[in-house]
UniProtKB/TrEMBL annotation, chain A:
<feature type="transmembrane region" description="Helical">
    <location>
        <begin position="118"/>
        <end position="135"/>
    </location>
</feature>
<feature type="transmembrane region" description="Helical">
    <location>
        <begin position="7"/>
        <end position="25"/>
    </location>
</feature>
<feature type="transmembrane region" description="Helical">
    <location>
        <begin position="54"/>
        <end position="74"/>
    </location>
</feature>
<keyword id="KW-1003">Cell membrane</keyword>
<feature type="transmembrane region" description="Helical">
    <location>
        <begin position="367"/>
        <end position="384"/>
    </location>
</feature>
<feature type="transmembrane region" description="Helical">
    <location>
        <begin position="189"/>
        <end position="205"/>
    </location>
</feature>
<feature type="transmembrane region" description="Helical">
    <location>
        <begin position="155"/>
        <end position="177"/>
    </location>
</feature>
TrEMBL record, chain B:
<feature type="transmembrane region" description="Helical">
    <location>
        <begin position="112"/>
        <end position="133"/>
    </location>
</feature>
<feature type="transmembrane region" description="Helical">
    <location>
        <begin position="216"/>
        <end position="237"/>
    </location>
</feature>
<dbReference type="GO" id="GO:0005886">
    <property type="term" value="C:plasma membrane"/>
</dbReference>
<feature type="transmembrane region" description="Helical">
    <location>
        <begin position="80"/>
        <end position="100"/>
    </location>
</feature>
<dbReference type="InterPro" id="IPR001851">
    <property type="entry name" value="ABC_transp_permease"/>
</dbReference>
<keyword id="KW-0997">Cell inner membrane</keyword>
<keyword id="KW-1003">Cell membrane</keyword>
TrEMBL record, chain C:
<keyword id="KW-0067">ATP-binding</keyword>
<comment type="similarity">
    <text>Belongs to the ABC transporter superfamily.</text>
</comment>
<dbReference type="InterPro" id="IPR003593">
    <property type="entry name" value="AAA+_ATPase"/>
</dbReference>
<dbReference type="GO" id="GO:0005524">
    <property type="term" value="F:ATP binding"/>
</dbReference>
<protein>
    <submittedName>
        <fullName>ABC transporter ATP-binding protein</fullName>
    </submittedName>
</protein>
<dbReference type="InterPro" id="IPR003439">
    <property type="entry name" value="ABC_transporter-like_ATP-bd"/>
</dbReference>
<dbReference type="GO" id="GO:0015807">
    <property type="term" value="P:L-amino acid transport"/>
</dbReference>
Length: 432, 337, 237
């Protein structure tokens, strides 16, 4: 890292410390934790965009798949649900997969054009009805069981940390499918395709109640760290807290957040280390060579599409890991809360502002933009109050302006993105 | 026989009429995207929010008109406000071009850079809309609700099924037809329109012929403002206005433009209807139609809905992927490689 | 000697900030005459044409037409000065009809362009039959005719052609050469680049051989044809 980089990181640390001093350490740690997660997402996108020039605007989908992994891994299995239709449902899913694989196989056969298309179409359409006919009863049976509290299959009941790599795997699988279809086409097509897959992932999470309880949400996910109430009853903890002059309630919330920070920091450091190694490796050099001149690279016999597929899968997996971590931190999966502006485009702002192509820059961007995202609202409100202080206390405009301050976030992010693109297109920490 | 008629009426009422209206809205949106692609050569992610902004401007003018007691009889007041809304949006787009896009054009920046810039513009526009009108649901359709309602239709024809044609549906179809006719007249018959097509075809040669690129770009933004605002207002009249629904239209609109062939206006229209009808057909519960057509004992027990309406994105998406895989330049030949 | 109608004098320059491609290259043509530029691939022939038309910045040298210095004019302004250019590649508007292509050629004119369109159709009768067809759907030779026709629409005093016969059959090529002579007879000065050096030099009043961005040989068409060195190296013996 350069001297400039150290300064910027020090500045970022200072921002968080100042937040802690003026607005409380609880908020500072909350920002830090989401900042760590954002930094990982930002690293994932940087892998795709900074290393390889791939334009993925489906980050939200991969993040949400990570969230799903948290449910599928950590929630206890719902025995009644499994008894009611679990195996039938798995069978139906296997059938669906078999039909798709069959269709692809038909398509790959080099037999007469029209015949092949017709067979494939018939297989797909017939298969769809068959699939629905076997899936629907199983779904109905599962969802009928105690719908207000469960109505789904639950998960595997494993420690939730396991969900982090699993989230990466789920995201990688989705990335493989989408990459197979859309890589090798123009960059805007990949963008639209990823935009679509993200919406579909969210639609699945919202609608397939047997899987994720849909908009009824899955709450109370197991945690990798102790519960505050348990700490508050722990004599040793109370004594230690008192030693620092803290009451048990404050101390327990802070301590839980610090534990999360530690876990997240480990993951971030590991991924950052690997990303740095990748960047410096022959593989990373080749990736950048392809990014800078795709035509020349493919003329030199590099298989551009295959390389792109690798990096696309890796980057998406990193986003999936971050998604699983985020759901772990939240302790719940709420499919309705996934918004592309927040989970896709904001991550893009992080990468561009931080410095695309530079891993340290991407991490810095993750922290900085997340900090801003949180702080713009109070700052905006404060600014609005300042602006409107001269106005009549119950004037319509004053009310409207203060109410609208909450909407300042998006505009601020847009202006920051545009300003960076214009005046410092390489970002805060440019790629060397 | 009456069963058959009932089936046709049910089909029209729930599938054909709404599908046509939605298709027209998508087509207008896709035309805007495709024009920007053809002339400025990037995929504009801010298009959905341009539609939202235009609609918001029109709503504000509508409220202004209503407050001074102007209305448009059985037609929505928003139609009178529409030209003013278009003008405001046009000014915004010209300003955006001046302040933001022009810099990158002069630099001959790569298209993907412009796409990222358009994401920044999208944030700002989205924020602007939320800031001005808020995030709530705004219903601004006034005037008569129905041209013909289901009850009247049943009384008139004596059928069991009713056909309701909402005023907004009819307005959507008529306005869209007029807009498309004007656009094609402009592109094919006027000097400026032809110069736009020439610029889209071969930028360098257009320059050699003395066509002024800045003028072409400015005219393009104005037309895009008109198309986006019209599309947005029609959609808003039909459903209701909400700041973020327009962002979600981005996917079907892009799908329509790509399916039709990016840069090809005719393709954008065809693509709009292909996407709209596929969405409606696949997410419609066919039971209502089938009960009239099937013998009593074969009548379906379920809703016979292929996919739940929440998966309508999946439909646009599946069509998009199919086209990308098998015919990347779209149904009508687009410019893209 | 009187100043030639069009002259690009001692031109030095390249694309953007890249290395120089032209090195003191001089091209000139007298009124109503045909000048032909030949040379190996990558010699900078197209670059020289673009330099004369103002499509790249010269570091040194000047371009004058009828004695007037136009070195700093944009291509559009040179069109107004009576110059017209048919580039080597993508020289038509493919999705527009033949007639629209011609109309676009006359974009800067505000007077009646009908007579000029008729003149182009008289010169290239096939275009009259195909006027409602998209230019991109035509054959290679017809497309070149559209391209030349489009350039003629401004009623230029100088017509610059970059390999107008590239990729067309020999018969069509002869036909095109005849038309170009016809244009020159009408008093239009012609500066053109040709791959088919032999035929081109036969009709040329003046010939240039460019090598690596510099003049290697200059003379009348006949002189160059007679020069052993030129014959051996460029005309294949
Ligand atoms: N647009 C361009 N940008 C940079 N270099 C170019 C460009 N066009 C041509 N060149 C380079 O200029 C040199 C001369 O090319 P050109 O003038 O096209 O040759 P010719 O027409 O004689 O075959 C070549 O080395 C070519 O690579
Ligand atoms: Mg050449």
């Amino acid at each position: 890292m350069t001297a400039r980089g150290f300064l910027l990181y020090a500045g970022m640390a200072l921002l968080i410390v100042l937040t802690g001093m003026f607005q409380g350490w609880n908020l500072a740690l909350t920002i830090l934790n989401m900042g760590l997660i954002s930094a990982i997402m930002s690293l994932g996108v940087n892998l795709q965009w900074g290393f390889a020039g791939l334009f993925n605007v489906g980050v939200m989908g991969f993040v949400a798949l990570g969230g799903l992994a948290a449910v599928l891994v950590a929630q206890p299995p719902v025995a009644e649900g499994w008894n009611a239709g679990g195996l039938r449902l798995l069978g139906a899913l296997a059938l669906g997969a078999a039909i798709l694989v069959g269709a692809v196989q038909v398509w790959k056969r080099k037999i007469g054009g029209r015949m092949r298309a017709l067979v494939m179409l018939a297989l797909l359409i017939g298969g769809f009805f068959l699939f629905r006919a076997s899936l629907d009863p199983a779904v109905d049976a599962i969802e009928a069981i105690n719908p207000s509290l469960s109505g789904y299959l639950g998960g595997l009941g494993l420690p939730i940390i396991v969900a982090w790599p699993v989230g990466g795997l789920l995201a990688a699988g989705a990335a493989w499918i989408i990459g197979k279809a859309a890589l090798g086409l123009r960059s805007d097509y990949l963008a639209i395709a990823t935009l679509g897959i993200a919406e579909i992932v969210i639609a699945v999470l919202k609608n397939e109640d047997w899987l994720s309880r849909g908009v009824k949400n899955v709450v109370g996910l197991p945690r990798p760290v102790p519960y505050e109430v348990d700490l508050q009853r722990d004599e040793g903890f109370i004594a230690t807290a008192a030693g620092y002059g803290l009451d048990p309630v404050t101390a327990s919330t802070l301590w839980v957040k610090i534990l999360y920070s530690g876990l997240f920091a480990v993951v971030l450091i590991v991924i950052l280390f690997l990303a740095q190694r990748a960047l410096a490796s022959p593989w990373g050099r080749m990736m950048r060579a392809i990014r800078d001149n795709e035509v020349a690279a493919s003329a030199m016999g590099k298989n551009v599409t295959a390389r792109h597929l690798q990096v696309f899968i890796l980057g998406s997996a990193v986003c999936g890991i971050a998604g699983a971590m985020m759901t772990t931190l939240d302790g719940q999966l709420t499919p309705g809360s996934y918004q592309p502006l927040r989970f896709t485009f904001l991550v893009w702002v992080m990468v561009i502002v931080g410095g695309s192509g530079n891993n340290y820059g991407a991490v810095l961007g993750g922290f900085l933009i997340w900090w801003l995202w949180v702080m713009v609202e109070p700052l905006g409100l404060w600014a609005m109050e300042l602006i409107t202080s001269g106005m009549d206390a119950d004037s319509w405009l004053r009310g409207h302006l203060t109410d609208s301050a909450a909407q300042m976030r998006l505009m601020t992010m847009g202006i920051i993105l545009l300003a960076v693109l214009r005046f410092s297109p390489k970002g805060l920490m440019p790629e060397r | 026989m009456t069963d058959f008629l009932n089936a046709i009426v049910a089909l029209s009422n729930f599938v054909l009429v709404p599908g046509a209206a939605y298709g027209a809205q998508l087509a207008l949106g896709a035309l805007g995207v495709t024009l920007i692609y053809g002339i400025l050569r990037f995929s504009n992610f801010a298009h959905g929010d341009t539609m939202a902004f235009g609609t918001m401007a029109t709503i504000l003018v509508t409220w202004g008109l209503q407050s001074i007691g102007i209305s448009f009889g059985f037609l929505p007041t928003a139609l009178i406000a529409l030209p003013i809304g278009i003008a405001i949006t046009g000014l915004l787009l010209l300003g955006t071009d001046r302040a933001i896009y022009r810099f990158y054009r002069k630099q001959k920046a790569a298209p993907v850079v412009l796409v990222i810039v358009s994401i920044g513009v999208m944030f700002v526009m989205n924020g602007l809309v939320r800031f001005i009108i808020g995030v709530g649901d705004v219903n601004f359709a006034d005037g008569a609700r129905f041209v013909i309602n289901a009850r009247e239709f049943k009384e008139m024809t004596g059928l069991d099924e009713g056909l309701a044609i909402r005023t907004t549906t009819l307005i959507t179809l008529v306005t869209a037809a007029i807009a498309v006719a004007l656009l094609f007249w402009f592109l094919n018959k006027t000097r400026t329109g032809k110069s736009m097509r020439a610029f889209s075809d071969n930028e360098d040669l257009a320059l050699l012929s003395g066509i002024n690129p800045e003028r072409v770009v400015a005219v393009t933004w104005l037309i895009v403002a008109a198309l986006a605002t019209t599309a947005g207002v029609l959609y808003g009249l039909d459903k209701s206005f909400k700041a973020f629904t327009y962002f979600q239209l981005l996917l079907p609109i892009f799908a329509a433009a790509i399916v039709g062939g990016l840069g090809n206006p005719l393709g954008a229209i065809a693509g709009g209807f292909v996407i709209a009808f596929s969405e409606v057909l696949i997410t419609y519960a066919w039971k209502k139609v089938l009960v009239y057509l099937m013998p009593e004992n074969l009548e379906p027990s379920g809703l016979v809905q292929l996919l739940s309406t929440d998966y309508k994105f999946a439909v646009s998406f599946a069509i998009l992927i199919t086209v990308l895989l098998f015919k990347p330049t779209g149904l009508f030949k687009g410019q893209s490689v | 000697m009187a100043e030639p109608h069009l002259i690009g004098e001692a031109m030095t320059g390249g694309y953007g900030r890249g290395a120089d491609i032209l090195h003191g290259c001089t091209l000139s043509v007298d009124k109503g005459e045909i000048a032909v530029i030949v040379g190996p691939n990558g010699a900078g022939k197209s670059t020289a044409m673009k330099a004369v038309f103002g499509m790249l910045n010269l570091r040194e040298g000047a371009v004058r037409i009828g004695g007037e210095d136009i070195t700093h004019l944009s291509p559009q302004d040179r069109v107004a000065k009576g110059m017209a250019f048919v580039p080597q590649t993508s020289n038509i508007f493919p999705s527009m009809t033949v007639e629209e292509n011609l109309e676009m050629g006359a974009f800067l004119r505000r007077d009646d362009i009908r007579p000029t369109i008729e003149q182009v159709y008289d010169l290239f009768p096939i275009l009259r039959d195909k006027r409602r067809q998209a230019a991109g759907e035509l054959s290679g030779g017809q497309r070149q005719q559209v391209a030349v026709g489009r350039a003629l629409m401004t009623q230029p005093s100088v017509l610059m052609l970059d390999e107008p016969t590239a990729g067309v059959s020999p018969i069509v090529m002869d036909e095109l050469f005849d038309r170009i002579i016809e244009v020159a007879r009408a008093g239009i000065t012609i500066l053109m680049v040709e791959q088919n050096a032999r035929q081109a030099l036969e009709i040329a009043d003046k010939g240039y051989v460019l090598v690596q961005g510099a003049n290697a040989y200059t003379g009348t068409g006949a002189e160059l044809m007679a020069d052993d060195e030129v014959r051996r190296t460029f005309l294949g013996g």
